[in-house]
């Protein structure tokens, strides 16, 4: 099992109330600044935090996340919900017409934007009507100089954040200068958080990325690739859950893909391609999850007692609690899947629940319970054995393709 490391540093108001956190990528447990491409770091924050729904570390507060020029131009931030995200425009970004267009577009969609480590320059003036926060690094940009800019922009709705506040004196000076928000070691060092994560098979990600080069997208092929990879399946549903005003309960991956639409789907796949190069092969429980999904799907398809897509979803997610070491009820509360699937995964004696129990009884060699369930669904021992053997073969072929 792989782990994800992310640091969060609190951002406070002048009354020392928590306003939000800046999220900082870490590549190991030492909580040091990693030597990594900024685009990759941002991608990992998104895929390891926002697309692993159990790993949200900011609660109901704002998440401040750095975005590079390329990710802003592609509007990668729009994969995430707008209400609690602050898009930080890095100081390395050039104030081009292309960037301004992206900023205007994201602002019109309700996103909050910040200029990080701001150094005033005439070419940034046209961006200011679309900016919600300006961050000054007071270790390199004098507070008195920042105060002058704050006064000039006092009639705007921009809020000003002082970074690298190291002492009580700096905090008090920044308050007097007109800063609204504060961040630095005086309040707290970045707190390192470690969580388990699900890894996608590299070849599955590459196959997905190849599909994005084609127009129009082949949704059947994309569904086929996603449905054979537990990590991709989980992240897809997390992304759907992050979508604004979701009104549907998902009962198949095809439905989830259709709900996202082509634009978001392309961004999602591009982000996965950036962050999943060089990963290990799927481990045993990954394969078992897919095998169980196929087994449940086959039984549902043959008996017609339940929707085969819902049965596949049920089998796919039956080992999430074991993989992530997080209560299943918490995970399911965060995923937009239909209630029948959730009930089955929680052990309820529904039709889907009994189909899953057939699969688990067979895997655990609980022949007495299996016989009772088989009789209820008019299944013979030979049929069940054949479905199970077919599921093993199907899963094995998928993993060969992913190598």
Please write out the topology:
Blueprint: E1 2-13, E2 18-26, H1 38-50, E3 62-67, H2 69-73, E4 85-89, H3 97-108, E5 112-115, E6 133-137, H4 143-152, E7 159-163, H5 168-177, E8 181-182, E9 191-197, H6 202-211, H7 219-226, H8 230-242, H9 253-260, H10 262-275, H11 284-303, H12 308-316, H13 320-324, H14 328-333, H15 339-345, H16 351-363, H17 367-376, H18 381-402
Parallel strand pairs: 2-3, 3-4, 4-5, 5-6, 6-7, 7-8
Antiparallel strand pairs: 1-2, 1-8, 1-9
Helix pairs in contact: 1-10, 6-7, 6-10, 7-9, 8-9, 11-12, 11-16, 11-18, 12-15, 12-16, 15-16, 16-17
Low-confidence stretches: 31-35, 277-282
Major sheet details: 8 strands, mixed, barrel
Domain tally? 2
| CATH class identity of the largest domain | Mainly Alpha
Q: How widely separated are the two ends?
A: 18 Å
CATH architecture field of the largest domain:
Orthogonal Bundle
Give the helix/strand class. Answer: alpha/beta
Series of H and E elements: EEHEHEHEEHEHEEHHHHHHHHHHHHH
With helices defined by DSSP (H or I, 4 residues minimum), what is the helix count? 18
Q: What's the number of extended β-strand segments?
A: 9
Query: Percentage of helical residues?
Result: 40-55%
CATH topology of the largest domain: Hypothetical protein af1432
- Morphology call: elongated
Strand content: 5-15%
Lateral arrangement of strands in the main beta sheet: 1-2-3-4-5-6-7-8
Q: What Rg do the Cα atoms give?
A: 24 Å
Task: Provide the residue-averaged pLDDT.
Answer: 82
Pfam families: EAL, HDOD
Organism: Vibrio viridaestus
InterPro entries: dGMP_Pdiesterase_EAL/HD-GYP, EAL_dom, EAL_sf, HDOD, RNase_Y/CdgJ
Protein name: EAL domain-containing protein
């Amino acid at each position: 099992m792989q782990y994800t490391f992310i640091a969060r540093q609190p951002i406070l108001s002048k009354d020392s109330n928590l306003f939000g956190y800046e999220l900082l990528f870490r590549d190991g447990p030492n909580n040091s600044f990693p030597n990594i491409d900024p685009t990759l770091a941002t991608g990992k924050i998104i895929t390891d935090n926002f697309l692993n729904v159990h790993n949200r570390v900011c609660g109901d507060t704002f998440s401040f996340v750095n975005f590079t020029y390329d990710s802003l131009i592609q509007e990668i931030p729009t994969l995430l919900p707008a209400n609690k995200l602050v898009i930080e425009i890095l100081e390395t970004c050039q104030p081009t017409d292309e960037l301004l267009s992206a900023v205007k577009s994201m602002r019109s969609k309700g996103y909050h934007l910040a200029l990080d480590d701001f150094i005033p320059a005439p070419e940034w003036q046209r961006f200011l009507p679309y900016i919600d926060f300006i961050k000054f690094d007071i270790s390199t940009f004098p507070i008195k100089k920042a105060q002058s800019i704050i006064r000039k922009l006092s009639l705007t709705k921009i809020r000003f954040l002082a970074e690298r506040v190291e002492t009580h004196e700096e905090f008090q000076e920044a308050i007097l200068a007109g800063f609204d928000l504060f961040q630095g070691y005086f309040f707290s060092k970045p707190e390192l958080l470690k969580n388990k994560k699900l890894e996608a098979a590299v070849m599955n990600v590459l196959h997905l990325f190849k599909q994005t080069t084609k127009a129009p997208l082949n949704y059947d092929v994309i569904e086929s690739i996603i449905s054979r990879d537990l990590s991709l399946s989980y992240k897809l549903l997390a992304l759907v859950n992050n979508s604004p005003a979701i009104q549907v309960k998902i009962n198949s991956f095809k439905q989830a893909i259709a709900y996202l639409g082509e634009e978001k789907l392309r961004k999602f796949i591009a982000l996965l391609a950036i962050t999943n190069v060089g990963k290990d092969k799927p481990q045993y429980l990954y394969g078992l999850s897919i095998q169980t999904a196929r087994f449940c799907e086959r039984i549902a398809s043959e008996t017609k007692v339940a929707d085969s897509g819902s049965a596949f979803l049920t089998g796919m997610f039956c080992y999430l609690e074991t993989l992530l070491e997080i209560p299943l009820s918490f995970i399911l509360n965060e995923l937009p899947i239909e209630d029948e699937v959730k009930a089955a995964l929680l052990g309820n004696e529904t039709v889907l629940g009994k189909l899953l129990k057939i699969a688990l009884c067979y895997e655990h060699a609980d022949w007495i319970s299996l016989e009772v369930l088989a009789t209820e669904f008019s299944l013979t021992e030979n049929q069940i054995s054949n479905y199970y053997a077919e599921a093993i073969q199907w899963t094995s072929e998928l993993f060969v393709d992913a190598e």
